[in-house]
Write a structure and sequence with these properties.
Layout: H1 2-24, H2 28-35, H3 40-49, H4 56-84, H5 92-101, H6 114-132, H7 135-155, H8 168-183, H9 185-189, H10 192-208, H11 226-245, H12 249-260, H13 262-279, H14 284-302, H15 306-313
Helix pairs in contact: 1-2, 1-11, 1-12, 1-13, 1-14, 3-8, 4-6, 4-15, 6-8, 7-8, 10-11, 13-14
């Protein structure tokens, strides 16, 4: 059990490091390659770890505490900091609109916050479907959502709904993939050579044809179906990599701790690296180090106190 927990935290650690890299290196092969899987990775692992909750209201309550409380707190803090540094010049009415609407309307320092609300909605919708549908119908709905995602992509790409609601069309199939793959985990993960080979091919395809890359936030889903499958293959490759890394204690400790702190890093890394870029230096390494280690330090401090664990980390006090 401990080994399984370790590889999952390692998996998240690799994922959040890739997120930082892709936001700092914002063009070229590395950027496009990472974008193929870095955000789908978190929806996938959430589906993999999904535990059914028949009481939808209870599931809503628990996820609201773990996701929405930190979301609004961090968003409010960064909004206030933006005003203090004159980073944005919106009037109060427009700022309140951005705060409440969220999703793709958020940009710059808060640009990554679309993920949190989309993540929350995806979890809620999947849990609702799970309580109402059998597995076959669930797969059918996931396929239908993917088809509608491509309709959104091709015909209504500029559509922006509150909390990035329309992105659910693409993220629900990814979440569902994580859940379904877990059911056949032993069979799929045992095909190590096949997964490694397909991952290498996926990397080559992305290098030769950058058009396969995706950007979920802006409803860019690459080449229909192919980009989706390439992303899932690469995610499975990272699963294998994480399981191998879990055998080595030193790197496991580093990556697993980073994985545990993935949500504070998600909230803060863009704000930190863009602030350094704007006011200090464009140096990639410096921005990466600060974007990673300042949130890690903040996570360490907040994890020490029950009140900060609740407000900033979404962890309810233990009884």
């Amino acid at each position: 059990m401990n080994n399984r927990i370790n590889w999952i935290d390692i998996f998240k650690g690799i994922g959040i490091i890739c997120v930082i890299i892709a936001h700092i290196i914002n063009d070229g092969f590395i950027h496009k390659f990472i974008f193929l899987f870095h955000m789908p990775l978190f929806f996938f692992i959430s589906g993999y770890l999904y535990k059914p909750e028949r009481k939808c209201a209870k599931y809503l309550y628990n996820k609201s505490i773990s996701l929405l409380i930190p979301y609004f707190i961090f968003l409010l803090i960064i909004f206030m900091f933006q005003y203090g540094t004159n980073y944005i010049y919106y009037n109060l009415k427009h700022s309140v609109f951005l705060f409440l609407w969220g999703g793709t309307k958020l940009a710059g320092w808060t640009g990554i916050f679309w993920f949190i609300t989309c993540f929350f909605i995806t979890q809620q919708f999947f849990n609702f479907l799970f309580t109402k549908c059998n597995k076959r119908l669930l797969i059918l709905i996931a396929c239908l959502f993917l088809l509608l995602a491509y309709v959104n992509y091709i015909f209504f790409q500029t559509l922006s709904l509150p909390w990035a609601l329309n992105l659910l069309l693409y993220t629900l199939p990814i979440f569902s993939s994580g859940y379904l793959i877990k059911k056949y985990e032993n069979v799929i993960i045992s095909k190590k050579i096949l997964i490694v080979s397909l991952s290498a091919i996926s990397m080559i395809v992305c290098f030769l044809y950058p058009i396969v890359s995706i950007n979920i936030k802006y409803t860019n889903y690459g080449v229909p179906v192919i980009s989706f499958l390439l992303g899932i293959i690469l995610i499975l490759g990272i699963v294998l990599l994480s399981q191998q890394i879990s055998k080595y204690r030193f790197i496991t400790n580093i990556l697993s701790y980073t994985g545990k702190a993935s949500m504070p890093i998600m909230y803060l890394h863009q704000f930190i690296q863009l602030y350094i870029l704007q006011y200090y230096t464009p140096n990639i390494l410096i921005r990466f180090v600060f974007a990673l280690f300042i949130p890690l330090l903040i996570y360490w401090i907040f994890s020490k106190f029950s009140m900060t664990r609740l407000i900033f980390l979404g962890i309810k006090p233990t009884k």
